[in-house]
Amino acid sequence: MIELFSDTGMAEIERFVDADTLFAFDLDGTLAPIVDDPTAIELPGPVLRSLTTLSRLAVTAVITGRSRNDALAKLGFQPRYLVGNHGMEGLPGVARPQQELQGQVAGWHQQLNRLLAPQILSGTIFEQKGCSLSLHYRHASDPRLVHAGLLAAIEHLEPTPRRVGGKFVENLLPQGAPHKGDALLQLMAHSGCSKALFVGDDETDEDVFRLHDPRIFSICVGTERTSAADFHLRDQADMARTLEHLINLIRSL
């Protein structure tokens, strides 16, 4: 990956961005710093102000693993597109019975309550998002042990979920459901934008990065893991600077 704020990165983003660009962002770890309590995330003031400004100037989207209602409460404003549950909720033109998906997720939760040993269960926080289920183990006394127990139990779930790992979290999604890459392509088609810039930070965002679509400018937050993104930011603290740069580029068109 190339650092975005290098000479090469700046030249590439200035060449790429134009009036037909859709700007899309993950939420946790990208727009907001990761915190110990996933219910307590908050967008830093400069990020929120710049994101609101960018949303007035260009087509913007937030594509998050959170439910739409939860993400809206965290954002405090409505971007043009707000897609939740990793691409399954709020995607225009895509309809799948929500009751069916919610039933699968509730079933996984019930099965895990039976499958997990007490020491694994006590070290896991279940975040049921309606159409997906996240298993957080950041606060476990032995995160490796709990993670291993979760992986073993997930193998026995019916129907088999799509498992996407993250930072001390395992995300369980229904098979065949849209992912973030599908969501971004659908938003480009729906908005009429010929290209998109996407910023994300974890494994769920790799569904966008692995598209390797020349119409998509991909940026990964952080360098602690291997990513298929073309460019990277050093950490989440660079997000405000990135948004300000995008605003300046749009205003200069």
Nutshell version of this structure?
By secondary structure, the protein is an alpha/beta fold. It is 38% helix and 18% strand. It folds into 2 domains: 168 residues, Rossmann fold, CATH 3.40.50.1000; 76 residues, Alpha-Beta Plaits (2-Layer Sandwich), CATH 3.30.70.
Kindly provide the radius of gyration, computed on alpha-carbon positions and rounded to a whole number of angstroms.
18 Å
Give the CATH topology of the largest domain. Rossmann fold
Give the CA-CA distance, first to last residue: 27 Å
Regarding quaternary structure, what we see is: single chain
Number of helices: 9
Helical coverage, percent range: 25-40%
Secondary-structure element string: EHEHEHEHHEEHEEHEHEEH
- Report the uncertain regions: none
Strand order of the largest sheet: 1-11-10-9-2-3-4
Number of domains: 2
Structure in words:
- Helices cover 38% and strands 18% of the residues.
- The protein is an alpha/beta fold.
- The chain has two domains: 2-94 and 178-252, 3-Layer(aba) Sandwich (Rossmann fold), CATH 3.40.50.1000; 98-173, Alpha-Beta Plaits, CATH 3.30.70.
- The strands form two sheets. A seven-stranded parallel β-sheet has the order 1-11-10-9-2-3-4, with helices on both faces. A four-stranded antiparallel β-sheet has the order 5-6-8-7, covered by helices on one side.
- Strand 5 and strand 6 (133-136) form a beta hairpin.
- Helix 2 runs parallel beside helix 9.
- The radius of gyration is 18 Å and the shape is globular.
- 44% of the residues are buried.
